[in-house]
Specification:
By secondary structure, this protein is of the alpha+beta class. It contains 6 helices and 10 strands. 38% of the residues are buried.
Length: 264
Amino acid sequence: MPELPEVETVVRTVAPYLTGRVIVAAEFTSRFVTPGNRSTLSKHLAGRRIEAVRRRGKFILVHLDVGVLSIHLGMTGRLLMASEKRAGKPVEHTYAEFALDDGVLLYQDPRQFGKIEWNPRRVERLGPEPLEISFEEFRTRLRRKARIKPLLLNQSFLAGLGNIYADESLFAAGIHPLASAAKLSAPRAAKLHQAIREILTAAIEAGGSSISDYVDAEGRKGWFQVSHRVYGREGEPCVNCATPIRRIVVAQRSSHFCPRCQKR
């Protein structure tokens, strides 16, 4: 699933194309990606001017002269710019097409787990941004009865972290995914806070991690996957101590860690 760095990369590549453009027409063809009345949504969007494109957590928010359109990429969603309207055979797995006064924006999603919504309420329930939260607030929010890995994945705790960057941040901080969040000392909490910020920043600079379907709005893959230290490396030697990386299931999600470097 695209996480904060991937969504931020998409926003940075698509915003220059979209800002200032007018949506001439919009077509939606999936009841999973666009729940509710798709015809009504198309009417809402026709003639609307795009004022800005921003990211909030894992959401892409298209701010219009009236209202906000939210795009969540789910597991396999892609936003791609095209210079002109498609001709002939439709592109496979395309479930939304935005005809602009200059160009076309396509939404593709083989698994249809993504969502395109009008003025979504769930964005309001997101936690702070990981790159903006102060250490004091971060440590205060840690004081709850929870394992640290599931807590980092909780979007009401922090907005935008997912499996990849939670695993990588915990490894960089030397913290086991099953460690108690409330029992982390101030120095360990500070190390985690710093690791999250540094890893997310580096991942954004690398264009995100392309594990399977992810590409930016111009179809380019990210490169941060070559820098992964634990994620997806089960059985491979730890880069620090050569101990084989382990994988366990935490809160129904795979968690990769070094049993020697990461302590509870």
